[in-house]
Amino acid sequence: MNLFEELQRRGLIKDTAWEDLEKIINSRDATFYIGTDPTADSLHIGHYSSLLTVKRLAKAGHHPIILVGGATWLIWDPRPTAEREIIPYETVQKNFESLKKQVTSLFDGNVEVVNNYDWTKDFSILEFLRDIWKYINVSYMLNKDIINRRLETGITFAEFTYTLLQWYDFLHLYETKNCIMQVAWSDQWWNITTGIELINKKLGENAYAFTMPLILDSAGNKFGKTSGNALRLDKNKTSSYEIYQYLVNSDDSKVEEYLKVFTFLSPDEIIKIMKKHNESPEERLAQKTLAKEFITDLHWQAEYEKVQKIIEILFGNWDKLELISKMSDDEKSALARETWSVKMNWSEIRLLDLIVQSRLASSNWEVKKMIQAGSVYFNEEKIEDIQKIIKSEDLVNWIGLLRKWKKTYKLVIG
Question: Are 64 and 112 in contact (CB under 8 A)?
């Protein structure tokens, strides 16, 4: 199975340009690029799905360029309804620097990150009109759906020219870096083919591209902040545990697709996993495999092991106190981030007050009802004494574990 066939088996190729694309991909020596806009200071897992395609191409020998649109995002792309608010240059530049650092880390430094602001900031309007825009027909642009829909309500010239700048990126990279291929999502097909046409008209040469199908959640939404599922790749913004919980709860109807897109498991390995998964779907083997592969690739094995420690403590049947007693400071910090915690600043405190402070209950009266119902535990011991006093020496490794019923935990930090 060659590289092109593997990408097809993974469902990563939707549209292609042109006939020689398969040969280019299998040549394993092409410079290509993928673009993203600096909308925030961290990418999310929607971006990551495309970056993994870039990784597959890079591992096969191709040379990736990640283009961050520092120029285009100063203008913003047209929205279906109204013009977006202009972002300050300083914010765009700050986001670019953050994304550059993040992407470089994801690729272990084996990637080139560029900013289209660098080659447009000194380009005069006359140069653009004379050397670039004269190759693009206005009627062709008006036929673009997003522009056509805005004609009745009004579209500014700045929004209108966003796509022109985007098309020029491909031409510039082709001329300066011998970048002959672009990779993007399927909703960018029109922009890609126009960039290819610009290269052909101005230089008389051919360029190539392929698009990937949009990766959607089970509700049919793209991964991103507007859909409420923007899990950030920066673990300080979205922890590995949060990503694990999201992926392990993936719908059965989507998990095979996600395994193909988000992991480096071979298509044949995925078939075996799905076969075993379908024999006992309640065990969620496919989802757990997806979460493990994703986190290990993104944040390394040690981070995945931290997640497993948290899961063992919160949901496992092991001796939780023994696990806590052996946790490192780093692991304890990770556990505290995932479990709403309360700082114990006293040598002793009434359990009633501690439970209210931890937000397991809203009042002393509610705490008393919980204790009478036998639903309150401290360090896995059922609490029956309403007047129970918790002392600092009751903590294990400076941690106390409050529990309501079976699964609701709060951490007490000494």
Answer: yes
Residue carrying the six token digits 């961290």: 42
Strand-by-strand arrangement of the 208-212 sheet: 16-17, 208-212, 179-185, 31-36, 63-68, 112-115
**Residue 234, burial from CB neighbour count under 10 angstroms (0-12, 13-18, 19+):** middle
What are the angstrom distances between the C-alpha of 104 and each of 11, 110, 112, 198, 222? 26, 7, 8, 30, 25
pLDDT in tens, 275-290: 999 999 999 999 999 9
Residue of 160, 203, 167 lying closest to 182 (CA atoms): 167
pLDDT value for 374 = 92
Q: Beta partners for 179?
A: 31
The whole-number pLDDT of residue 180 equals: 98
- Look at the alpha carbons of 127, 76, 80, 150 in this order and tell me if their dihedral is positive or negative: negative
What is the full DSSP assignment across 217-275?
-TTSPBSSGGGT---BSSTTTS-HHHHHHHHHT--HHHHHHHHHHH----HHHHHHHHH
Task: Please report, for residues 31, 95, 167, 228, the alpha-carbon distance to residue 70 in angstroms, rounded to integers and kept in the order given.
Answer: 21, 9, 15, 25
Please state, in angstroms and rounded to a whole number, the distance separating the CA atoms of residues 255 and 252.
5
Contact 212, 189 (CB under 8 A): no
Inter-residue contact 204 to 197 (CB < 8 Å)? no
Q: According to the model, what pLDDT value does residue 80 have?
A: 62
Phi and psi, residue 100, nearest 5°:
-60, -45
Res 289: pLDDT:
98
State pTM to two decimals: 0.82
Ranges of residues in the chain with a pLDDT under 50 are 227
